[in-house]
Amino acid sequence: MNIRYLIPILAVVAIHNTVAMAEDEYEYVEPPVANQVSDLTDDDKDGVVNARDICPGTPIGAQVDNDGCGAAIVEEEQRQLRILFANDSYEINPIFSDQIQTMAQFLEKYQSASIQIQGYASKVGDPEYNLELSKKRAHAVEDELLYFEVDPKRVTIVGYGESRLEAEGDDETSHALNRRVTATVVGLTEKVIDEWTIFTIIEK
Questions:
Q1: Is 33 helix (H, G, I), strand (E, B) or coil?
Q2: Residue span of the signal peptide, if any (predicted)?
Q3: Pairwise CA distance, residues 91 & 94, whole Å
Q4: pLDDT digit string (tens) for 135-174?
Q5: CA neighbor of 105 nearest in space, from 141, 79, 131
Q6: DSSP codes of every residue in 135-189
Q7: Domains of the chain
């Protein structure tokens, strides 16, 4: 036989024998099957399993800490009432109706907020009478808010009479400024911070 044909044949035989020896030397072993003993369910898909998530129901895409609680910022909005009255009167001038309705809408928006209506009087007249008059003014504003379906449990009133004057003068302008009802309501909104992604747009 020509030696040129013999060399490739010998090479094939050598490779075959090597593979056969390797197969004989190592027996096939089945890979182990993982035995999962912990519940890795993550219902709100925030990356923290239910077993250690103390804030279930986190909005999808929210930035969370190791306990599964979303980071949040609190935003604040404020509304004020300032209603003036005629001398010795607790009748509300119609020009203040829009202001009262706006406050009712604000309370509708922020259901956790409450309002304290504060009534005042000028120093004209008897102090005891003015104290009762200031309460009647506060009640008049309360009645208007209740007309706009504000929950009465969220409304309180207080009358200060002439004990907290806004203007100390003894002229008609000062008296007019002191015959008033005021209120300040703060509404709070908690906004969850979204987790950063490659699609996040940074405001400049």
A1: coil
A2: 1-22
A3: 9
A4: 999 999 999 999 999 999 999 999 999 999 999 999 999 9
A5: 79
A6: HHHHHHHHHHHHHTT--GGGEEEEE-TTSS-S----SHHHHHHHSEEEEEEEEEE
A7: 73-192 (3.30.1330.60)
Residue 73: partners with Cβ closer than 8 Å, 6 or more residues away: 190, 191, 193
- For the segment 22-35, what is each residue's pLDDT rounded down to a tens digit? 555 667 778 877 77
Beta bridge partners of 78: 186
Exposed e or buried b per residue across 29-62, where buried means at least 16 C-beta atoms within 10 angstroms of its C-beta: eeeeeeeeeeeeeeebebebeeeebeeeebeeeb
